[in-house]
Design brief:
This protein is α+β, with helices and mostly antiparallel strands. It is 18% helix and 37% strand. The radius of gyration is 14 Å and the shape is globular. Pfam families: SoxD.
Amino acid sequence: MRIPCPFCGNRDVSEFAYLGDASAPRPAADAPDADREFFEAAYLRDNPSGLHRELWYHASGCRSWLEVERNTRTHDITKATFARDRVRA
């Protein structure tokens, strides 16, 4: 699989580290049931089929965090943007 890094161009997936679902909100660390919420977020999440937004870290390249839109059935990537751009929007 090739990931189109906005800075470095098309790169092999081996240059990246996968973080997970980009659409899932991170649980609040100071919540009274934070342990349970973090467990559920890490281990009891859905396994989507089809178009999915994911976070990837370009560890062997520009060291940027990317938000990648990928079809989990075909591995076709339709979009890759810097994750920081989504936060600012």
